[in-house]
Specification:
By secondary structure, this protein is of the alpha+beta class. About 50% of the residues lie in helices and about 20% in strands.
Length: about 210
């Protein structure tokens, strides 16, 4: 009888130990996986943002369709301005401006065209631009439009986003729900996004 009680007690101790270990490890494991997935999604959103900025530089607007954006990345070029030369400290101390330096030829500016694919998508195929990392082919939501500022200026905007429930699928559901609830209480989007369709935010990401 005594041996049986000792065995039962041993199982109880082991069980309690496992529950304690699990309660400590679960949030750590979730956070590690969350950080890993978040970093990959943020990196992809940054590339989308750069592609949209290049697209707007060429077309004076953003696109709300990945088909258009991907085709632009594959085949498009956009112009950048390269500066040659610079003002020295003595020139700056003498009050010379960049505009004056340009007139004198001290600084030269050239407009060149570069491949969007070669400059923005060196590490991924253009077709992967719309795919959310760590998912089985889930796609980012993409939209574009215009908004009117308080000074009645109409400006183009875009937004690319993915909810937590998509890129965190497969991880502990309760911890994900907690993240969503926290974001909603703070009036934030429960996921990761860049840009905004309702306000001009200079294409900022909500992780920044």
């Amino acid at each position: 009888m005594k041996t049986a009680l000792q065995i039962i007690l041993l199982f109880v101790i082991v069980g309690l130990g496992w529950l304690v270990y699990k309660s400590v490890q679960e949030p750590i494991i979730f956070q590690e996986n969350y950080d890993l997935r978040k970093a990959a999604v943020v990196e992809r959103l940054k590339i989308i943002r750069d592609a949209q900025v290049a697209y707007k530089a060429t077309n004076d607007r953003y696109t709300g369709g990945f088909d258009t954006l991907i085709n632009f990345v594959k085949t498009g070029n956009y112009k950048i301005t390269k500066n040659e030369g610079s003002l020295t400290d003595s020139m700056l101390n003498a009050g010379m401006t960049e505009k004056e330096a340009l007139k004198l030829g001290i600084i030269k500016r050239d407009t060149v065209y570069v491949s969007v694919k070669d400059s923005l998508c060196k590490n991924i195929a253009p077709e992967e631009l719309e795919i959310v990392p760590f998912t089985n082919g889930a796609k980012f939501e993409l939209g574009a439009g215009t908004i009117k500022t308080s000074s009645n200026l109409v400006i183009p905007v875009f937004e690319a986003k993915v909810p937590n429930k998509v890129f965190l699928k497969g991880l502990d559901e309760q911890y994900r729900i907690n993240l969503d609830d926290e974001a909603k209480q703070l009036g934030r989007y429960p996921g990761l996004k860049v840009g905004d369709l309702e306000e001009a935010n200079n294409n900022a990401g909500n992780w920044e």
